[in-house]
Amino acid sequence: MHRAYQPITPANNKLLKQRWDMSRYDTHRRKVQSAAAVIDNKAPQTYMHLHLKLKKLQVEEERNATIERDNRILLEKMSYTMRTKGRVDNRNDYEHKSLNKTKRQRELLRVTHENQAILKRIASKEPHYNHLQWEDEWQINETYMDNIAKYPKDWYKQMTRKHRSRTQSEPARTTTSENKNSTETKEEPAPEEETAEVPPTEEPEAEAEL
């Protein structure tokens, strides 16, 4: 059989060449069979916590338990109301209490003390400007202005007062003159004419025919 084997490369002994080629081929096939795939085409790994959400089930159970408890309490109240006459509990004796009342009182007291201290400092501080000196200087300046002024002080007000008095007196004069003219032009009434009374005429009595 080895004589019929035709090697690819030249060899002196065909039998040994055949054995070597077969051993290399078997080694190659074993490597091919044991080689790992380069592309991973397997199905992805499944995780149980994604399919079975235990937290969601726990929350749902807690919610159902809360609903059942509320329903049971409501049913007990309804049964108690049905067994008894039922009463309305509308009294509320709760007194409102502030948890930070003392803190707010301390803060208010601190702010009040600070404001009083600021007010005391402001009141005890002497003014920087002397308003009495300003008043004296202003009076001196007014005397200077009166001395150099062309017109007397408050001349505009005096002129307006005179003008108003004139405008008020002129209509009164015109009304008095019109009244005088109207009284002079009045005519005396004409004397009434005496009318003679005409006696009524008496109709002659018709003579009775015999």
Automatic annotation (TrEMBL):
InterPro entries: CFAP97D1/2 (IPR038792), Hmw/CFAP97 (IPR029488)
Protein name: Cilia- and flagella-associated protein 97
Annotated family: Belongs to the CFAP97 family.
Location of region: Disordered: 159-210
Domain of life according to the entry: Eukaryota
Biased composition (Acidic residues): 190-210
Organism name: Nematostella vectensis
